[in-house]
Amino acid sequence: MRRSLIFILTLLGLTACGMTATATVDPVATGRQAYTIYCAACHSVSDVGNESFGPNLSALYARAQSEPDPGAWLREAIIYPNTELAPGYQAGIMPMSYATDLSAEKLDGLVAYILKVGAPQP
């Protein structure tokens, strides 16, 4: 009887621990991964990535800062990249598939990443 009670209490304790433990997701880390997969081949952020095909995303960061909600503006710029073009670039070069290819988590992470690493470094 005593072993059964200990076993039940142990299971309850493990279950309670599992129910209260939550994994914290770092949106910047998620964004860094999304940037590496989807963006770095054509864009750079600060000194990371390639600038030969697309504009530096630090400039996108700077443009977003002129908006009341920089994060919302960046989301729209990523989802609909040909709406507002960077000077010197033409419509149609940036793929439109990001509206469906990026999950909300990846999109939020990408925005967080650009807002962090696109900012001028002191």
UniProtKB/TrEMBL annotation:
Record keywords, A-Z: Heme, Iron, Metal-binding, Signal
InterPro entries on file: Cyt_c-like_dom (IPR009056), Cyt_c-like_dom_sf (IPR036909)
Domain Cytochrome c positions: 26-118
Gene3D superfamilies: Cytochrome c-like domain
UniProt GO MF annotations: electron transfer activity; heme binding; metal ion binding
Positions of transmembrane segments: none
Range of residues in the leader sequence: 1-23
Top-level division of the source organism's lineage: Bacteria
Coiled-coil region list: none
One Pfam family per UniProt: Cytochrom_C
Protein name: Cytochrome c class I
Lineage of the species this protein comes from: Bacteria, Bacillati, Chloroflexota, Chloroflexia, Chloroflexales
